Amino acid sequence: MDRLRAYEVFVTVVARGSFTKAADALDTSPANVTRYVNELEAHLHTRLINRTSRRLSLTEGGEALFDRAKSILEEVAETEALATTASLQPRGRLRVNAPLSFGSLVLAPLWPKFMAKYPDVELDIALIDRVVDIVEEGFDLAIRISRTTSGNHIARRLGRSPNLVCASPAYLAAHGMPEVPADLARHPCLGYTYGATSDEWQFAGPGGTLESVRVRWVLRANNGDTARAAALAGAGVIWQPSFVIGEDVRAGRLVEVLPGYHMPPVDILAIYASRRHLSAKVRLMVDFLVEALQGAQAEKGERAAG
């Protein structure tokens, strides 16, 4: 049995919902389609498709095989294209994980541009703030806002985001402006559950000296927009990357505190499994994001300078 052909036949039957339609799509006979599916089931010692006179349905084993076989066929198609043409056109599903706020505010406007450039790629975007295991959870690529990454994966820096420490004008009018990091110990603070700094915030001061302060949380959330809303309402001092609260600062809704001090910026990283052969979809997506995000940062810099 030609197993690759059997996978192709099986995937086509499932996608078309019919042995006859699959035969038409594959330019073969329904008898040949039936033979391939029967041989595949015999080889795997399990039924893959339940057949009735009206409809087909996948068994549990069939569902598991369909996703994997579809991915295998997509990878084979990309490999063949790589060997036969100088310009590889990626195809198939690309599963991307990103944090909720960054994914909504920054990445969402970029997806249509990528889709227009690579129309054969099906994007599957999951916005999850917790750090996912990309291999265990079946992601091709993860975007993370962090200064560190696991040694088990490859990371490419897409850009950087400044960290801002801010409060609303109403809060500062009522509680005063913090002047040095130690002042934050007497202010209620608004935090991010997955932040690497936890309750100890570290700042670079004049001359590059480092100062740390242990803050008092009054709200901690697993999404930056929740902390942002509390800061806008005057509930306390917030620390967030500029892509979350930068527009609020520019509009005057939030005010930066601690003049002369700053938190180190965070890296925007593309994380993917350490594989010998990186798929074309992932490679092109990473290249696309590098160009898009670094171009956006350069544009912001020009506007600020002007």
Structure, explained:
The protein has helices at residues 3-16, 19-26, 30-44, 60-84, 100-107, 111-117, 169-175, 224-232, 242-251, 280-305; strands at residues 49-51, 56-58, 92-98, 121-127, 141-146, 153-167, 188-192, 200-204, 210-214, 216-221, 237-241, 255-256, 263-273. By secondary structure, the protein is of the alpha/beta class. The protein has three domains: 3-84, Winged helix-like DNA-binding domain superfamily/Winged helix DNA-binding domain (Arc Repressor Mutant, subunit A, Orthogonal Bundle), CATH 1.10.10; 92-160 and 267-305, 3-Layer(aba) Sandwich (D-Maltodextrin-Binding Protein, domain 2), CATH 3.40.190.10; 161-265, D-Maltodextrin-Binding Protein, domain 2 (3-Layer(aba) Sandwich). The strands form three sheets. Strands 3, 4, 5, 6, 7, 10, 11, 12 and 13 form a nine-stranded mixed sheet that branches. Strands 1-2 form a two-stranded antiparallel ribbon. The chain has a two-stranded antiparallel ribbon with strand order 8-9. Helix 1 crosses helix 3 (30-44) and helix 2 (19-26) packs across helix 3 (30-44).
Strand segment tally: 13
**Portion of residues in helices?**
40-55%
Low-confidence segments, given as residue ranges, are: 301-306
In terms of DSSP E residues, the strand content is 25-35%
Order of helices and strands: HHHEEHEHHEEEHEEEEHEHEEH
Biggest sheet details: 9 strands, mixed
By CATH, the superfamily of the largest domain comes out as Periplasmic binding protein-like II
Query: What's the overall average pLDDT, rounded?
Result: 86
Tally the helices.
10
Rounded to the nearest angstrom, the distance between the terminal CA atoms is 68 Å
Q: What global shape is seen? A: elongated
CATH class of the largest domain: Alpha Beta
Report Rg: 26 Å
CATH architecture of the largest domain: 3-Layer(aba) Sandwich
Number of domains: 3
Going by helix content, strand content and strand pairing, the class is alpha/beta
Q: The CATH topology of the largest domain, please?
A: D-Maltodextrin-Binding Protein, domain 2
